[in-house]
Specification:
single chain, 177 residues
């Protein structure tokens, strides 16, 4: 790839049409290359893109989860340690789902869990596999009762051997030698 000609272009940041024309002209270039052409920082380029509606802005640390169909709103007395322990530890609801239930931000739920001394699950623990074979019954039947090898289980489930080992550990099933 050849380097574009870097030049100080005459861009009027207050004129949206000028910015849109600039981004249309240099649409194939990276933000870094656009910044070099405009003689501005990449931060400024991102700001201009946001101002023009060309960028989604900063990515959130949390995915937006749509639980509205399945989640009911809760009673008003949710702000207590017993309720959080029941929802998070016993019912195994995730932080995002609890946030939607109480109509608060995810960070609020995280702060409450911390305030009440409730230990949060690791990301790997809190995310469940969508694979229909990743359940304790299937693993016990095939790995323990039928004595399939890890490789045979992996082939049947269409996953890697390492994934089967992870599932066995997750479900506290003793791994054979």
């Amino acid at each position: 790839m050849t380097n574009p000609t870097y030049q100080n272009s005459d861009i009027d940041p207050s004129d949206k049409n000028s910015l849109l024309a600039f981004f249309a002209k240099y649409s194939k270039l990276s933000e870094n290359e656009q910044a070099m052409i405009a003689d501005r920082s990449t931060h400024t380029i991102r700001k201009w893109k946001r101002d023009c509606g060309l960028s989604k802005g900063k990515k959130s640390l949390y995915k937006k989860i749509n639980y509205t169909k399945k989640v009911r709103k809760v009673e008003a007395d949710w702000d207590n340690p017993e309720w959080f322990r029941k929802m998070y530890n016993e019912k195994k609801y995730g932080i995002g789902k609890i946030a939607v239930m109480i109509d608060k931000a995810i960070r609020t739920v995280e702060k409450r869990l911390d305030r009440y001394g409730i230990k949060t699950r690791a990301h790997k623990e809190s995310t469940r596999s969508k694979n229909k074979f990743c359940n304790e019954d299937w693993l016990k039947r095939h790995y323990e009762e039928l004595e399939w090898s890890i490789g045979q289980c992996a082939d049947a489930a269409c996953v890697t051997k390492a994934t089967i080992v992870d599932w066995l550990v997750q479900h506290k099933i003793l791994i054979r030698n």
